[in-house]
Specification:
Length: about 230
């Protein structure tokens, strides 16, 4: 895996260094963060099916955010943190829509419907982002810019069949998608646009606060229909 990442770096401007760290190991990001002005915190487990949502989703998301941002505060060079949150931290289901002014989700809205037993992934993202803002508000060294993407789709630099995006498409194709194909709307963003959003969040002076990133609306049947020309009925 590292050899593949190194090959990408060799074909690109700049350089890359690798460090060993663990989201749940306090202090393990100290060496990697030393001397950095900008920190991207993008890692949080996303799995469609889990046996223990507290251990597999909530703990890594919450503890990882706490450990990374605490280390940012302990690293004098850090001036900005870019956090990859999610639209899942804004809404969980229609219960949130019913309580939203004018039925429009904005960056001012928070998910209030998710919990450990109901949409635990959304719950984990909500807790993690709230913890990020709490840590930000307790210091004045670094600025926090949060990216809240809708469902992320699109090509990768290498095909990894273990990604959850791939798994969703696979299940739509083989008939194992648990909810069938209801006409359920959802926002989608291209992964390349999301990468650009992260760069702008990191380097534009005016970037601040929460930022919903969505390209367009689609639906479960719409996603399934898009797969037909490539894979057939």
């Amino acid at each position: 895996r590292l050899a593949y990442l190194q090959s990408l770096a060799d074909a690109s401007p700049g350089s890359i260094r690798f460090f060993s760290a663990d989201l749940e190991d306090e202090g393990s990001f100290a060496e990697a963060m030393a001397g950095c002005a900008v920190v991207f915190h993008t890692a949080s487990p996303f799995a469609m099916t889990v046996a223990d949502p507290q251990k597999q989703l909530v703990d890594p998301a919450l503890n990882g955010t706490r450990n990374v941002l605490t280390q940012a505060s302990a690293t004098p060079s850090v001036r900005r943190v870019v956090l990859t949150s999610s639209c899942a931290a804004i809404y969980g289901d229609n219960a949130d829509l019913a309580d939203t002014p004018n039925g429009v989700f904005t960056e001012e809205v928070w998910n209030t419907s998710s919990g450990l037993q109901h949409n635990p992934y959304s719950y984990s993202k909500t807790l993690a982002e709230k913890e990020a803002w709490r840590l930000h508000d307790a210091q004045d060294q670094w600025k926090l810019v949060v990216v809240n993407p809708a469902m992320v789709m699109g090509p990768g630099v290498k095909i990894h069949e273990t990604s959850e995006s791939f798994e969703i498409c696979k299940q739509l194709g083989d008939g194992t998608f648990g909810m069938g194909a209801p006409d359920l709307g959802l926002g989608v963003v291209d992964v390349r646009d999301l990468a650009e959003a992260h760069l702008r969040a990191a380097f534009l002076d005016e970037a601040n606060g929460r930022n919903i990133i969505v390209g367009h609306d689609t639906s479960i049947p719409g996603m399934a229909a898009a797969l037909v020309p490539r894979f057939g009925d």
